[in-house]
Amino acid sequence: MTTYSLVADVGGTNTRVALAIGTDLLPDSIIKHRNTDYDGLPQLLAAYLQGQHSPNCKRAAVAIAGPVKDGAGRLTNLNWEIDKTTLADVSGAKRGAVLNDLQAQGHALGHIADTDLSTLKLGEDENPNAAMLVIGVGTGFNCAPVFQTAKGRFVPPSEAGHLTFAARGDEQLALSQFLEQKLGHVAVEDVLSGRGLERCYAWASSEAGDAKTATTAEVFAAAAAEDPVAVRAIGAFVTALGNVTGDLALTLLPFGGIYLVGGMSRAVAPWFERCGFDTALTDKGRFGDFLNAFSVRLVEDDYAALSGCAHFLARSDNQ
Fold it and tell me: How many Cα neighbours within 13 Å face the side chain of 139?
């Protein structure tokens, strides 16, 4: 009997689930579920497996958008919890694993097709064997460093989205002060996320003497029509992303490359050149030129986290 791995990528809005044989995802098994249709992740996974005719799963791994500790995690933007024991029980697998979603993305690096990678900045000192950095911008914000060790790949978790947002320049300072009045503590994720772009728009509208709000989709549509408030909002977002990316790069020294993932990363990437992403990335005083060492690539594979889960399970079997 064929044995499978059950893998899932659990976001704040949708969950993608698939079956894998070894490290190979089965394309016909990939299904995206709306989280609001289920009471929790165990119910969602049970429904998926029933729809797949209850396959024989030897292993299971889920990547969640939230902190993970000791094999258990809770989503940051959804009141769902999961642990490895519950995952094994639901799937019938002998072993379950719970990862942060950026960890799963880190395990996918090196296994993403070239057609799903866009080079935004080619580093002057790229070393494919060195540390890499994954930065995720979507419903939330987070990052994960990726280290190559003698015992294999090591991808530690983090919760970088909840670092204090460090404003740089008059525009970002005004944005930060605007948000501080509304939120108190201003975290990186409060600016760099889907909701963050909406907040950037509210700030830009206020600066223009208005008090309008807009959804993320409305901001992009307005910017495409050259609405100055929407363009300014996207500019503030892109500049903030460049600054934060530069800070994380100096912290982790990813000579193996920086990889941007997530829906918001893909949505704002076409605005990088116009809005000065590279200038903001390298705006680090006497270490500005040093930032040119690191390549920046955009990941356009929606299923990279699923692939990362499968590769994580396969590597764990071999250790």
Answer: 15
Distance CA 215, CA 230 (A): 11
Phi, psi (rounded to 5 degrees) for 61: -145, 135
Alpha helices by DSSP H, 6-149: 41-51, 84-91, 101-108
Domain span at residue 67?
Answer: 4-107+302-318
Dump pLDDT digits (tens) for 37-93.
999 999 999 999 999 999 999 999 999 989 999 999 999 888 999 999 999 999 999
Asked whether the whole model's pTM tops 0.90, one would answer yes
- Residue 24 has φ and ψ, to the nearest 5°, of -95, 120
Give the CA dihedral 175, 179, 180, 185, nearest 10 degrees.
-110
Banded pLDDT at 11 (limits 50, 70, 90): confident
Local structure of residue 254 (DSSP, 8 states): -
- The strand pairing partners of 15, in sequence order, are 10, 33
Q: Are both 9 and 130 inside the same structural domain? A: no
Tokens of 77: 């933007």
Question: Within 13 Å of residue 296, how many CA atoms lie on the same side as its CB?
Answer: 21
